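Contributing new records

If you add data, match the layout below exactly. Sequence lines come first and carry their own label; structure lines follow with theirs. Keep one chain per record. Anything else will be rejected by the validation script.
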Amino acid sequence: MFASRVATKLVGVLLAFALFGPAIAQEDQRAEQARLAAHIQVNPTDYEATYRYVLLSTELRDYEAAISALERILMFNPNLSRARKELGFLYARLGSYELSAQHLRKALAEGGLDAVQVAQIEAQLPDIEKRTQANRLYLRIHTGLRAQSNANFFPTNSLFQVGGVGVASAAARKSDVNSFQLVQAAHDLDFQNARGDQLETRVTGYATEQFRLPQYSVALFAGSIGPRIHIAPDLYPGLSIKPYLTGAVSMLGGNNYLNAGGGGVSFGAQLNPDIWFEPGAEWRTISVKPLPGSFNFLGASPYQTVSTLATGDVVTGYLSGSYRLTNDLRFESRVAYSRAWAGNPQQSSNQVDVQAMLRYEFDPPFEIIPRRWSVAPYGRFTHLAFDAANLLINPFTARRDNVWIGGLLVDLPVSATFGFAGNAEFARNDSNIQNFKTENLSVSFGPTAKF
C-alpha cells in the first residue's frame, strides 16, 4: 500500500509538471518570439535571427508563423538550402507531405548543406514520400533479450489457497532470461477519393523463448482491418470513423492457448497537429484451450475453472488520446472499461484500465545521427473484480486485483533504418487472494529495424 501511495503521488507530480510547467515557460518564449518578429520584419535578410525565430516558433507549435518567416527569406534568396530544409520539415508537421517532399528534394539538389543536415533529410524523406503514395506499408522489427525476476508468475510469499485453506508451496518463483522477436506491420490503402479515406490494416507478431522455463514461452499473432472514413473533411478535416474487424491467436509452451475474434468501431478526432482523441468500443469472443496434462473434474478441466482467462465474450469501451505539450514532450493516455462474460460466474469480471506515458524526445549525443532519441516513463493501473468466489480457491471471497505497473521505454535510432530500444518495468499485483499476489521486475534491450 505504501508503494502504491508513493507511485500515485509521483504520477501526480509528473502530471502537474507536464501540464503547468510548459505553460509558465511559454510566457518568456512568446515575449522573445514577439521581439524577434519585430526585428526580422525590419531586417528581412538577417538569416540567423530568422532561424532563431523559426526555432522558437516551432517550439511553441506556431508552425504557420515559422513557415511564413522561411518563405519570406526564400523570396530574398531562393538558394538558401537550410531554409528550404526547415520549410520541408514544417510542412510535414502540418500533414502537407507532397509540398514537404518537394522542398526537401530541392534542398538536397541545390547543395550547400553540411553532412548532418543531409543525413536528417535522407532519414526523413523516405517516410514523407511514402505518405504521398496510395499504397503505404510500414514495418518495424525489434529483437533482443529480456530478463525477469519472476518468470513463472509465482505468488510473492509462496502461499496458495485451496478451498479456502492456506498452503505453503515447496516451490518458489524463478527468474529467467528469454529471447524475443516483435514484428509490427501497418498498411494503408488510400481510396484516392480526395477525402483522405483509406483502408487500414495492422498486424503484430510476438514470440519469446524462455531459457529455463520453456513452458512459459509464448507466441502471439494479432491483427485488425477496417476503413477510416472522414465524416466531414471540408468542415472538420480531423474527424473520422473506423469500423474494424480484429482477431488474435496465441500459443503458450508450444500449445494453442487463446483465440479471439470480433470487431469494433472508433472515432478519430485530430483537433490540431498536437491534440488527438480516439473513443471507441469493441466486442470479442474468446476461446481458451485447456493445457495438456490437465484432467477432467466433474466434466470440466480445473485449469478452465481456476484460470483468470476463460471462454466467453468481452465488451470494451475505451478512450485514447495524446497531447504534445512542447516540441519535445508528448503526453499519451488510455482509459478502458471491459466486461467479460464466461460460463462460470467466478470467471466473469469487470475491469478498469488506466494508462499514461510522457514521451520526451531529444537530440542524440552525436550530430551525425539523423533521428532524435526518446525516453518515455509510463504507468498503468488495472482493477479487476470477479462476480463470484471460486470454490476451488476460496469459497468465501470473490477475487479483486489491483495491478500497478511502472516503467521506462528508450528508443535510440542510430541511422535512418536501424537502432536500439529497451524497456525496464516493475509490475505488482495486489490481490485479495494469495494465489495471485505477484511482483515482477523485467528488463529488455535489443536492436530495431524500421522500413
